[in-house]
Amino acid sequence: MNDVSLPDALATLKFGSVAEQDPDTHRVRVRLPELGQLLTAWLPVLSRKSLKDKDYWLPDIGEQVAVLLDARGEDGVVLGAIYSEQDAVPVKSADKWQRRFSDGAVLEYDRKDSQLTVSGAVKHVLVQTQADITLKTQNTLTGDAGDAVLIKGGNTITLQAGGKVSINAPATEISGTLTVKGAITGQGGMAVSGGGGATVSGSVNVSGDVIASGKSLVGHNHMGAHGPTSPPL
């Protein structure tokens, strides 16, 4: 069995505030008040993963952190930020995970209510991928926008429902050709203008009159040899 000699003093736990940042190496220097405002060497900040998967998040300047230093105080690691009376905890629940950003954006998951919330000052949400994206729920899927909703498809956009698709809007505009493979039912009238007019292949059944260039189909007369004829039967 090999003999292992230990240093006279083991590593110690200290608390201080971040004085400098090095974003390129994910390191910081920490000011330690209990050691006469000693400024540490550049110390790595502990991350959850750094090889295949990578986690990157530096503590801010002035943020209180816990530091593990070696016996001589020359090397160590920043274990992470800590809460205090000045920097109070934002959530008081053992069932919640939350990340709150300085611009007001908040990501929160409540395992008690099984609810994921994205709120606050989030101005843009970008999901950029070459894979398929599926939104699937057994309940209601709601999209609510205060201004505009834009759905762009490079080739085809399909809306599929087992029952009915409803469009509830004061006006609906379709730029391009409209093909309907089922019956069309109109309850508020219909107006067609421009293009080549309207073409119907097949029979047309009209309950009421048909007016063409101001002439009534039901009430029009023709001029015969002995005067106007009677309206069509």
TrEMBL record:
<dbReference type="InterPro" id="IPR037026">
    <property type="entry name" value="Vgr_OB-fold_dom_sf"/>
</dbReference>
<protein>
    <submittedName>
        <fullName>Phage baseplate assembly protein V</fullName>
    </submittedName>
</protein>
<feature type="domain" description="Gp5/Type VI secretion system Vgr protein OB-fold">
    <location>
        <begin position="20"/>
        <end position="83"/>
    </location>
</feature>
<dbReference type="Pfam" id="PF04717">
    <property type="entry name" value="Phage_base_V"/>
</dbReference>
<dbReference type="InterPro" id="IPR006531">
    <property type="entry name" value="Gp5/Vgr_OB"/>
</dbReference>
<dbReference type="InterPro" id="IPR013046">
    <property type="entry name" value="GpV/Gp45"/>
</dbReference>
